[in-house]
Design goal:
mainly beta; 34% strand; globular; 551 residues
Length: 551
Amino acid sequence: VKSEMLFLLWCAVVAATSVTFYKNGEHFSGTVGVTVDISQISSATNTTDLLVKFAAELKDFHTEEELGKCELYDQLGLVPKTSGELVDGNNYYIVPKNRLFVWPHVKVGHKIQVPQVDEADAPIYLESLGTSPRVFFVHNLMSDKEATELLETNKESVAKSTVGSGDDELIRTDPGRTSDNAWDSSSPAARSVISRVFQLLRIEEDYDQMDGLQLVRYHEKQFYNGHYDFLETESATEFNNMIPTLGGSNRFATLFLYLTDVETGGQTCFPNAAHLTDEELEQVSPEIRHLVSSHKDTADKELIEKVLQGKEVGTLEKPFAQECYKQLSVKAKRLAGVLFYSLKPTWEFDYSSLHGGCPVLSGLKWGANLWVWNANRNDSHDRLPSLVHFKNTFPSAGKLFWRQIEVDALEPGEISNQNTYNTHVFRFEIDGVQVWSHKVNSSDGTEQSVDIDDSLSVTFVNVCHEPLQIYWHNPDDDTELFLAPLAELASSNHGTFLEHTFRFYNENTKQLRYEHVMDGHRSKQVINISPDLLVDGPVQAQGGNSMHEEL
C-alpha cells in the first residue's frame, strides 16, 4: 500500500510538470523558449514522441517530421529517455539526431558543474563567457599530474608550428604563427585528457573524430594571429567533402588547455567578439574575473613596443597585441581551459569564431588543444577503402608511418600493402628523418601502386608585394637556371627533388630576396613568399640559361 501511494504521489508530480524547450545551443539572454504542460502525457512516453505531440507549439523550431528525428538534452547535457524523467520547470534542448549537442550559453557567468565526466583533481565547471562565438571557461579541466606529464613527455619534441590540416597538402609554416608544437595522443596523460574532452562535449570518444592532442609552446614575442579552426572550402566532391551542411565533416569544437600560467600577454583572443560590459563582468565568477577582458583594459603600448622588436618579430605581432585588449580575450590559468565552437548548431561555419594566441610579453606559455570534428574526419559521402602498394625506391631502408604509427619497415625495393581510406596520409622516414609523404586519393582507384621516392612538387605564391624571378641553383657547378617570373599575387608550380634549392630575386633590382631548400615534409608543398621571409642581399642573379624549365 505504501509503495502504491508513493507511486501515485510520483505520478501526481509528473502530471503537474511543465518544461521549456529551446533549439539546440540557442539559449541566450533574451531568447524565449516554448513552455508546455505535459501533465496529460504518460510518463512512459519517450521524449521523441513527446516532441511530436507538441509539433504545433514547436513549429517555429522544427517541422513535425523533423521532430520525429530529434532527441532531448537537459541543461546538464544528459539525455532523458522518457517524459517521466523530465524535471518540473527545467529547460530542455532539441537536438536533431544527425547533429551534436551544443552547450547552451544561457547568460554570461552561467556556471554549472558538469556530471558524468571523469574528474581530474576537482569537479569540472563550465562557465559561459561569449555568445558569438559560443565561448566557455572550463574550470579544473586537468590535473596537476596530467599537466606535468604532458610537459615532460613532449618538451623535447616540439618543432616549428605549421598551419593547415594534418592531412592537408597545403600544410606550411606561416609568419602569422611563430610558436612551436608537438603532438601526443598516446601518453597516459594525453589519453586521459582526450577522454575527458569527449565526455565534456557529450560525444562518444573516437580518435578518428579528432586531430590529436597538440602541445604548443610560446616563448616571449611568439604568437598565433587570428584564424579559424574549421578548414574553409567552397565545394564538396564524392571523395572530399568538408562542408558539414552537405553531409561532410569538419572541425566542430576546440578545447584549449592551459598547462602554465603566463606572466604577461599570451591571452586567447576572439577578435570578432565584443569584450564584456561592466554588468556582464560582474556576473563572471570572482576567481576568473581578472582573466577576462573588459572595456577598461588598455594595451601597455610601451611594453608592447619594448618587447615586440628585433629581427625575429614580423609585421603582424604588434597589431594583434593591440587587438587582444580591444575584444573578448581570456588569460591563461593553469589546469583550466577554454571551449569554443567553430560550427553553429546548424552545421554552418561560424565566422565569429576567429581567434588567436596573443603575443607573450613576458614569461613562457605552454598549452594544448584538441580539435573535435562533427563526424569522422576522414569521411566523405562514400568512404571507399583502398589497397595501396607502397614501394621503397630509395637506396636505403626506412620506416613507413600513418599518422604517428609505424606500420612497416621497408628495405630498398620492398613493398608494403596497406588497406586505407581517402585522405589518409602516409610518410616515410630514413634514419629518423622524414623524406617523403603521400595523401591517398580514392578517386585513383580501389587498388593503387605508389612509389616511395624523392620526387616532390612545390607551388610558390608571391605575397610579398614585389615582382620576383625564380632561379634553380645547380650545386654541381654553382650556376643558376632561370625558371619563371613571379609577379605579385601570382603562383608558379614546379616538380623538384629533396634538397633542391630555389632562389628568388627582385625583378627590378636583381637582389637576392629569398632562398628555399626543399625538404621531405610533404610531397606536395605550398610556400607563401611573404615580406617576413625576405632578406636584403648583395648577391646578383647568375646569368645561366634563361630557358623556362619545370624540374
